[in-house]
Design brief:
By secondary structure, this protein is α/β, with parallel strands linked by helices. It has ten helices and eight strands. Strand 7, helix 8 and strand 8 form a beta-alpha-beta unit. The chain is globular.
Length: 313
Amino acid sequence: MHAVERLRVPLGPAAAAAALALFLAGGLLGARSYGLNYWLYRGYDAPKDPPYVTVRGTQQEISVTSPALGGRAQQVYVYLPPGYATSRRRYPVIYLLHGFPGRPLAFLETVRMGVVVDSVAARTHSPGAILVMPFGSTGTFTDKEWANGVGKGQGWATFVARDLVRAIDARYRTIPSGRARAIAGLSEGGFGAINIALQHPGEFSVVESWSGYERPDKLRSIFGSKLQLLAANNPTRLLPREAAALRRDHVYVWFYSGNDDPLHVQNGAFAAELGRYRIPYHYFQAFGGHNWALWRDNALPAYEIALRRLARA
């Protein structure tokens, strides 16, 4: 058998440059794709319903114009439970507040709350709840703490408790009552959920904080050059004043920390204060830190607890 001689034709300068450009472009596209996927899913696979789910919920993006934010139109994502489009029933609502830096779609893409809603509906035949996920800032890396700040048009807490709630009740078939509303959030959103619920008694009957905190960061850009608004956004100070209203409205607080999360210290202290003021609550430390794995692992019980406690039509 004759050996086949392979001819090696050297590339000219232009061809070599073109080949290098293609190689680099492919590498950049690959890196961009990896980076985008990590930003969306934090290293997990894209969310996918289990095989037994035959009817899926519906994701919508809407815009809510908020007087509390100076007329700013704010991005909001809504997840309607399976069967919403074909029913006439009214639904309870769970408001979900993202952390910092954060974005509302992380609840669907990373925490997989849509999969949770679909799975529970398929297993239990429960109508479920509407999920509402607002964007709580002017930019992904701009910190607002979900609090009413000193600047004009910086009423982020009022945006959620008043403008957003009214807009959702007007647009969707909700049960328009605080007894059918939950507010929850992760990390900074957990602080926001507790803070907003205490500032607006009667608007929410279930409050959940996933790895949140109760002592706000001393951010002068939000609370003033002399931190004059800090006390008004401190749940540990608000609780004694609002305890009677919380008991009257049968508000239930469900929250947790990772056992490796330093925030478990102040969360444990807040749990003791809730007990002192006879506010129904459940607090626990889960195995883990302050991360997406913890929030994903506890997404199902967080949803199920809210469903059990919220009023239904």
